[in-house]
Design goal:
Layout lengths: L1 E2 L7 E5 L5 E6 H11 L1 E5 L8 E6 L2 H18 L3 E7 L4 H16 L3 E7 L6 H13 L4 E3 L4 E3 L2 E8 L1
Parallel strand pairs: 2-5, 6-7
Antiparallel strand pairs: 1-4, 2-3, 4-5, 7-10, 8-10, 9-10
Length: about 160
């Protein structure tokens, strides 16, 4: 972003604050107009000759660019999958702690993978624990698919609402 005195072109294609085209004006005249109106002269592109410039309220253009950069960073972040492991013989206070951790992760926008370690094959306790977890986290997220039982663990991926 090139503003005010940093614009090196001898003349610019000028637009006023409302977007009305003022035509081709010398850079010195455009700067004089900007100072008189107490606004910034912002060069929009360097690829054309003369470069298009616009009169914008002071710091408004910078704020707009900062907001766009912040949105781009947030969209680049994307969702992460965080895993939380449980065992069938979990105590109630440990269950509550891990459940709150899952709720916090879902609230921040991350996907949570819940894993229950199975002690005995086809154990109903492990399925009951996973059903309880899904039911308790129903207000924060929805399961991506049904329970997946593989080997000695049961896995469910929960996406945030």
């Amino acid at each position: 972003m090139i503003i005010n005195e940093k614009i090196r072109a001898s003349e610019v294609q000028l637009s006023d604050i409302n977007g009305k085209d003022l035509g081709i004006v010398s850079t010195k005249e455009a700067l004089r107009m900007a100072k008189a109106l107490k606004v910034d002269l912002v060069c929009l592109s360097l690829t054309s000759s003369p470069p298009p410039c616009k009169l914008v309220p002071q710091s408004a253009y910078k704020n707009q660019l900062n907001q766009e950069k912040q949105k781009d960073r947030q969209s680049d972040k994307g969702r992460k999958i965080k895993e939380i492991r449980f065992s069938v013989s979990i105590e109630d206070h440990d269950y509550d702690t891990k459940k709150r951790q899952a709720e916090r992760l879902l609230a921040s926008g991350d996907t949570v993978q819940l894993t229950v370690q199975v002690e005995k094959k086809n154990s109903p306790e492990s399925k009951n624990l996973m059903d309880r977890l899904i039911k308790d986290l129903n207000n924060c997220g929805k399961p991506q698919a049904a329970m997946q039982i593989s080997g000695k663990q049961i896995v469910v991926i929960i996406n945030p609402i």
